Amino acid sequence: MLHTLLFLFFVLLVVFFIYDSIKPEYFPPGPRWLPLVGCLPRFWILRKKCGYIHEAIKELSDIYGPVLGLKLGKQKLIVISGHDLVKKVLLQEEFNGRPDGFFFRLRAFEKRRGVLFTDGPAWYEMRKFTMKHFRNFGLGQTTMINRVTVEAENLVKELQKQCKNGPILMHRVFDVAIINSLWIMFAGHGFEYGDKKMKDILDTVHTAFRVMDTMGGLVSQMPFLRFLIPELSGYNELVRIHEKFWAFIDEEITNHDMKLDINLPQDLIDTFLIEISRNKSADSIFNRENLLILCLDLFLAGSETTSNTLAWTFICLALYPEWITRLQKDLEKVVGRNRPPCMSDAPSLPRIEAFLAEVQRSHILAPFGIPHRATKDVTLGGYKIPKDTLVLLSYYSVAMDKDHWENPKEFRPQRFLDSNGQFSQKSAAIPFGQGKRRCLGEILARSTLFLFFTYVIHYFDFEISPVHGTPDPNGYDGFSISPKPYYLKLSLRSDLEN
Fold first, then answer.
1. What separation in angstroms does the CA of 413 have from each of 272, 350, 404?
2. Degrees (nearest 5) of the Cα angle 216, 217, 222?
3. 225 contact partners, CB below 8 Å, separation of at least 6
4. CB–CB of 228/234 below 8 Å?
5. By the 8 A CB rule, do 387 and 376 touch?
6. Which helix (H) or strand (E) segment is 422 a member of?
7. pLDDT (tens digit, 9 = 90+) per residue, 226-237?
8. Biological process (GO) annotations (predicted)?
9. What percent of the chain has pLDDT over 90?
10. How far apart are CA 432 and CA 306, in angstroms?
11. pTM of the prediction?
């Protein structure tokens, strides 16, 4: 009897292994699948060789084509490469879902909460509510520009203090200013430079983007490992990170709840709390957990990307110093030296707009953006994409597509200038995505980038630190590509020293 049971178990195990290695009919081409792990071993080896996930994916796409099929552990996914195909998928309704794997629920109390990793009616209502009240509290209006301008002024003051002590560590210098521009809209206040609590949480943000990847990491691909090797699999680290985030935001919500005036909401959190008090149904999107994860989504998405974009922008200035003089001369011609830049100057500063656009093209912060999910069985390029398949869009391939960009690996801001020297926003550039999933903070991000950049180059000259050397043009891999620590020597421009 025992022998029979062992034999049956062995047969079932063999059948499972065979079944687990078979690709669905007409699934996109990719590496061979092994039982349990899929093509994860080959992917790991390739990632280690290339140094970055997006470079590993590029190698595979060069072999198997622009619609690449993978199975990493239990996770089936496809990767779309090339400008035209990525744009097509972005605008296709069937690909507008968000993943529902282990990692994506871990961050939201094992539920589907917030606005980044949800879809369907709940996501639509949450996004609609967020955008409506962001506009009420200044998004896209003069109020928002005024707030960003104040933060730009405070940033300059902080840099003036720091530059007196030698070269400045630049890769984190924009963090507080960026957070304040966003935080004031959904929490009603900002933070002081040097605030220890804010420094700790910002350190956690940077860590989070380093230890996570677009696909959710090993805990999404092989969730059972959290029971066997919770530390090595990264599970414990993810829990520690999210517990810090939850505690930080929960404290903010509690403070708002204690001071709430239902007749005079001051920010997005107040408005959401009022809706919670009015909506008691079990299926309402208005509950405290949803508010906490919404704040977490906005906090993470709004802080890391914009701060890193600015950090990369000044790396580019250091690597291509001829642009510093050009852009400062443009500012002097348009703005002069008797006032700071303002948002209305942007149309008259085409080379600055072109420089910022080229930074965003050449340094793709999130090479795959936020992952999508097929909401139903769909056909793409002759291949069948099963419902619930994870879909990654290679924004890196869009930025490097030779059919749309001449010599894409070269840093050439002039590619965004027309024959008359005016800024031309290329349709091939999609740094904020497209379609229904387009970044909801785009207006704030564009204004922040322009004002912070122009303020700093208006007030300061730059040199590469003789002690620390040239900034490393290669960043850290992760959910986003973050710059490595680097220093620049800043000096207040001579006509402003008094």
1. 42, 10, 15
2. 105
3. 218, 219, 232, 233, 235
4. no
5. yes
6. none
7. 888 999 888 999
8. organic acid metabolic process; xenobiotic metabolic process
9. 76
10. 11
11. 0.94
Task: With H, G, I as helix, E, B as strand and everything else as coil, classify residue 424.
Answer: coil
Q: At what angle do helices 288-319 and 196-211 cross, to 10 degrees?
A: 80
Is 316 annotated in a binding site? The answer is no
pLDDT of residue 367: 95
Contact criterion met (CB below 8 Å) for 70 and 79 = yes
The pair of three-digit structure tokens given for residue 276, joined into one six-digit string: 């919670």
The token duo for 6 is 């062992």
pLDDT digits 0-9 by tens, 300-321: 888 888 999 999 999 999 999 9
The full 3-state SS of 150-193, as one line of letters, equals HHHHHHHHHHHHHHCCCCEECCCCCHHHHHHHHHHHHHCCCCCC
* Number of H-type helices and E-type strands within the chain: 18, 9
Residue 223 backbone phi and psi in degrees, to 5: -60, -30
Range scoring the smallest mean pLDDT among 8-12, 136-140, 150-154, 171-175:
8-12
**Rounded Cα–Cα distance for residues 387 and 404 (Å):** 31
- CA 55, 320, 348 angle in degrees (round to 5)? 105
H-type alpha helices, 335-492:
350-362, 395-399, 442-459
